[in-house]
Write a structure and sequence with these properties.
Helix Hairpins; eight-stranded mixed beta sheet; tRNA dimethylallyltransferase; 10 helices; Rossmann fold; alpha/beta; tRNA dimethylallyltransferase activity; nucleotide-binding; tRNA processing; single chain; Histone, subunit A
Length: 285
């Protein structure tokens, strides 16, 4: 049996394509999104459909798994995603349906399809020490031993910390833990490729729409629930910009501009990632 993967940059229409495929091939979606896994953050992560229960949503009659399962202060990883996705794949196969992995978190997709080497577990003592350092300090330290991970995660303190922790504990970079292996599944991987001019226009429009339609209030609500502004869920693009706005460090106009710019940069990195992966068929738009 074969699983299907539909990937691509943010705002490229992955979920719409996955829903259409599921209707045609009797499938169910497994979300592969490191942000949609969190509860309470719906607008900024662009969740679709209706939330049912236990990480399950329904989008236009199609079931979607692995959203809304973690509190904003909980950590998530590629290894945890693989474990969760393996379980959902088995359940969907048992129903005689096709699992359709859908999302733009490339590292999770690669780990699911090809596996990953055992990485060191979080070290409480080391992590406590690293958390005393600023984001810039973490970046500068990591830059010396793993410049690729430092640049990729420059604006994400949680991932900077984890990459540095892995490097210190194992003496190896994050990427060195992802060796090329035989596939874990029979799969078809289809990645959406869309003209940058069209994609960036969609991103700009989406970011502005999110800000003007409740994302600021959504962020404030999570903070009011007692979650720290530096918790994993709020470290993502958009939410960290809103926190700056709420702290009166930037204007609303600059919030939208910075949010849009960083999202465009993220989409560019996603495109580069998927083009470098093996066994991918591209769908051009």
């Amino acid at each position: 049996m074969e699983i299907i993967v539909i990937s691509g940059p943010t705002a490229s229409g992955k979920t719409k394509k996955a829903v259409a495929f599921c209707k045609e091939r009797n499938g169910e979606i497994i979300s592969c999104d490191s942000r949609q896994i969190y509860k309470y953050l719906d607008i900024g992560t662009n969740k679709e459909g209706i939330f049912l229960q236990n990480g399950l949503r329904r989008i236009d009659g199609v079931l979607q798994h692995l959203t809304d399962t973690l509190n904003p202060d909980q950590n998530y990883s590629a290894a945890k995603f693989v474990k969760d996705a393996d379980l959902k794949i088995s359940e969907i196969f048992e129903k005689g349906k096709v699992p359709v992995i859908t999302g733009g978190t490339g590292l999770y997709i690669k780990a699911l399809l090809y596996g990953l080497d055992e990485m060191p577990k979080a070290d409480k003592t080391l992590r406590k020490e690293l958390k005393t350092k600023s984001q810039d300090e973490l970046y500068n330290i990591l830059l010396k031993s793993d410049p690729g991970a430092a640049e990729k995660n420059k604006k994400n303190p949680q991932r900077l910390l984890r990459a540095l922790e892995v490097n210190i504990l194992s003496g190896r970079t994050i990427q060195e833990h992802f060796k090329s292996k035989s596939p874990r599944y029979n799969f078809g991987h289809y990645s959406i490729s869309i003209d940058n001019k069209i994609l960036y226009k969609k991103i700009n429009e989406r970011c502005k729409y999110m800000i003007e339609n409740g994302m600021i209030e959504e962020t404030q609500k999570v903070l009011n629930m007692g979650f720290d502004k530096n918790c994993p869920a709020l470290s993502g693009i958009g939410y960290r910009h809103i926190i700056q706005y709420l702290e009166k460090k930037i204007s609303k106009e600059n919030l939208i501009l910075e949010f849009s710019k960083d999202t465009r940069h993220y989409a560019k990195r996603q495109n580069i990632w998927f083009k470098a992966q093996p066994d991918v068929d591209f769908m051009f738009y």
